[in-house]
Every structure is written in structure tokens, then in C-alpha cells.
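Re: the request from the purification team.
They wanted to know what the chain is likely to look like in 3D before they choose a buffer screen. I agreed to run a prediction and write the result into the notebook, where they can find it.
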Amino acid sequence: MFGLGTPEIILIAIVILVLFGAKKIPELMQGLGKGIKEFKKASSDIEKDLTSTDDKDKKVN
């Protein structure tokens, strides 16, 4: 994963824990999850719009 080994991932986790504190991390992860969900939904909506536009173009020609 991005060329990171286990020690590097553990170090990053410790730094995040120290910077944000144990109480703030669940809130950050919840916000991240919501952001990812919204991004996937927007991507899906755009894909549907493009597909429906392609279908309409094919029917016209």
C-alpha cells in the first residue's frame, strides 16, 4: 500500500492519535465515511447521466 510497511503505518497511526486524540478520531472517520459515500453517489449519478445521454444519442441517429 503506497510502499508503506507495517512500522510506517503504525507510526502514522500513533501520530494521528497524538494529534487528534482518541475522542476525536471516531468523528473524523465518520466524516471521512460520509465524504466517500457522497463521492460514490455523485460518481454514480454522473455515470447514469452519461449513459442515458449516450442512449438518447443512439436512438436519434
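For the purification team: The CA atoms of residues 5 and 21 lie 24 Å apart.
Please add any questions underneath this entry.
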